[in-house]
Amino acid sequence: MRGLKSFVNYLKRADKLYWFIMLAISVYSLLLLKTVPNSESGKSYFTVQLVAIFLGYFGAILFTLIDYREIASYWYIVAGFCLFLIVYTQIFGIAVKSSGGINAKAWIQLPGTTFQPSELVKIGFIITFSKHVSELKERDLLKSFPQVMLLALHAMIPIILVHFQGDDGTAVIFFCMFLAMAFGAGVQLRYFGAVFAALAVAFPIAWEYILQDYQKDRFTIFRHPETDPLDKGLQQIQGRLSIGSGQFWGRGLFNSNSRVSKGLVPVQQSDFIFSVAGEQLGFVGCMLIVLLLLLFLFRTLRIARKSPDCLGSSICFGFFGMIAAQALFNLGMCLNLLPVMGVTLPFFSAGGSSAACLYLGFGLAQNVHMHRMNTDKVTLRR
Question: Which pTM value belongs to this model?
Fold first, then answer.
């Protein structure tokens, strides 16, 4: 009886609609991956995703049991662990074939599998940066130029380290998370203007001295992939054909004669999972993905708005920035609106590391909702 009462009390405190949307996304993701053929090594993307989702939900529930203020009070442990993960990956990491990047040394080898530490570091960054920006807001220091520069330096640490791994797609996501949390906390707009002005000035320099040839090719070809249909434009051409072939209702799930079953779209289980939905479930299936993600994002913002403090709202804005940026960039590259950049569609793309860690972010946002009425003062370690 005690266990049942605890469960009922948990449900009363939780955002049940948020849970429902999350469960719907999980089921839809598994359904799409069930239709994708196994990898060349025989690995089932469906099975890997199912295990990752279970682990992710377990971690999310654990996260909701501890007040987010208490979690953030150990920011220094989180920061140290994240720094260790990135440095360890830089030294001992490996590159994974068809990872969406070229020579991206962003994975580490674990018994029987690989793991991408930067996915876990995203969650750590949400915690540490939210703690940082909330401390500044409490002390009324967000208008101080030196303090804002320290915030920018905080964000640049994971961005630069991930860049040196060769995973610039993830570096861009970190940057978007930084913008979302800084904006949500109330950093003055003039600083954002300065950031974008600096980017405009820096882009020609980056193009000349930092971007590699394959990255430049992605920028120059994405609008006209048919100019190199057998190499640089192949993925986007095939993805577009699959999406268009589904028309309104799709060609049907588990179609043995489909483009999905033949594996015509490179990395269709991950970066181009949207093309799987487009072919098999058509426009309706694609719009269902967009609708579910929009509902999820709006619910995240609602939790942020109802948060009792800057720490809670910053956590939600960070998670919002991560999901929104990944969804925008992934859908953009699948629809030939943006260059291919190795960014997965959140919750839908295959990838144990990404899936499990995304659910941890969901747990953090749910935590903010469940502890919003907690008036107990937590001793925050500064």
Answer: 0.94
